[in-house]
Every structure is written in structure tokens, then in C-alpha cells.
Amino acid sequence: MKPTTITQRGVGAWNEDALISNASARIYGVIDGATSIVPYTGLGGETGGYLASQLIARICGESADAELSLMELLAQANNALRQTMAEAGIQMERKEEVWSACSVLVRIAPKWIEFAQTGDCMLAVYYTDGTIRIVTNDQLAHVDDRTKAVWAAGIEAGLTTRAELWEHSKAQIAEGRAFANADGGYSVINGDPAFADYAEFGRFSRTNVQALLLFSDGLYIPKPLGESDKESAIGIASLVREMGLPRYIEWLTALEESDPDCTQFPRMKKSDDKTAIWINLSEF
Q: Which helix (H) or strand (E) holds 113?
């Protein structure tokens, strides 16, 4: 069966998000590619984040082996990404140069749901009694909070454009990349085998599960300084249930457009790529 709703909206020349919708394998996922600090352009003009997300989606979705766990599929994708970057001349010891992507995947079985997650792609579970459970942890929130604090300091110092604020915060953004697949940091698919030591994975019962929501961090609501994204997922999940995915994304995009220079709500981009999958379990 197909998920009830798939929503994807890119905001740049290359949409660095990708999605997986493999009905025969019952595997679904959202992949969020990240632009490297050191720019990369492929033969067709592609960014490294785009190439990473597309490769991961292809290996974990289109070419998925039913005998492998989701973590094993992500490990295959991670190894393939490492090889592709090596062929492109990327220096993988420099974390600001490597291509990377966050991810959340689910496999829907008759009695249980398997999941695997890296970074800040999130999984929400809706139960028949109306409760919502956030299964995954936003592993990047504490890193993003530090960057937003530097961004806000730039605003207080009189910087007024996003370009100025980006330059002011660039060193902190690069510092955040150093925590990829490291203690005190976060898990991300970037060719480093250590990603598996920091990823979240497992399975939970399908009993009384009504629906699932998988989403990239492009669905996060901009917040004033001092408010972390750490607990954002439950609010997003509630609004999506209330509004529906397409209407929620329209509302969010309008809010982002009201603050184009990111001075009212400190953040690194006016808008980020947005990808989400709503799965109604009654159809499976």
C-alpha cells in the first residue's frame, strides 16, 4: 500500500532532501542532505548534499535487500558514499568537506515497525487513543542551539542581512560539523563507519498504532532566541494532525517568508527543504 500523504518542497537550485517509498518492501524514509562547508559541484552542477541523499535513497529504497536490517542498509549506503566521495577527490578526514545526510527509515511488518535514524530527521507515532509518541531524538538540537546563539549575537551587534549573519556564524557552523559521529555530537551518514555507534534504531509494536509521520528538519517551526528545537517534534506532529501536511507546510513557508533575513527567528536559512511522509496504518 502507498502512504496517505507524501509532501516534498525544495527551496534551492537543488533539493537536497530525498524520500523512500518502497511499497513492495514496505520501507519508507526521509533523507536530508547537508551542504558541505567547503563547496562541491558535480558534473551536472549537483551539490554534495544532493548526491548524498540521492545515493542513500537509492540503496535503502530502490535496491533494498529484504534480508538486511535498516541499519545494515544504511551501512551499505554509508560505504557507497565513502567510495563515491573518494572517487570525487573529497578529503574525508576534513568533516567540513565531506558530503553528508541525516535520515529516518521505517519498515512496516504485520506485528511491528522497525526504524533507524541519524541526525535530526524525526519519527512520530500516532495511537488510536489520540496520544502521540516521538520515537527519535533530535541529535543536532544542542549543536544548532550554539550556532543560533552566535547568530543572535550578530543581530545584537547590528548585522541586518542573512549574508552578514552567515559570515559572522560560519566558524561556529564549521565547528558543529566537527561533532559528526563523535562523542558529544550526533550521528550522520558521511562515509564514516562510526555513524553506527551514534545512530538510533530498533523496533516497536504496531498494537494500537494508527499512523506514522516521518519528516526532515525543514518542517521545524522558526523560534525566537533562547527556544531550542529539542522539543519541537511533538508540536509539529500535533499541528500536522490538525492541519494536514500540505496545509501545514504552506503555513510554515508563509511564516518563514515573513522573516527573510532570519533576524526575528535566528536560523541559518530562510527556508529549508521540506520532506515528510504520513502513513495511515489502517491501509497496511
A: strand 112-118
At 122, is the secondary structure helix, strand, or coil? strand
pLDDT one-digit tens code per residue, 233-276: 999 999 999 999 999 999 999 999 999 999 999 888 888 899 99
83-106 per-position pLDDT tens digit: 999 999 998 888 888 999 999 999
Residue 252's alpha-carbon distances to 53, 89, 247, 270, 277, in angstroms, are 23, 38, 9, 11, 16
Tell me the chain's radius of gyration from C-alpha atoms. Answer: 18
Pairwise CA distance, residues 65 & 49, whole Å: 24
The pLDDT, as a whole number, for residue 37 is 80
The structure's pTM equals 0.93
Nearest residue to 6 (alpha-carbon basis) of 272, 229, 216, 254: 216
Tell the burial category of 19 from Cβ atoms under 10 Å away from its Cβ (0-12, 13-18, 19+). Answer: buried
DSSP string, 8-44: EE--SSS--EEEEEETTTTEEEEEEEE--SS----TT
| Residue in the block written with cell 518502497 | 22
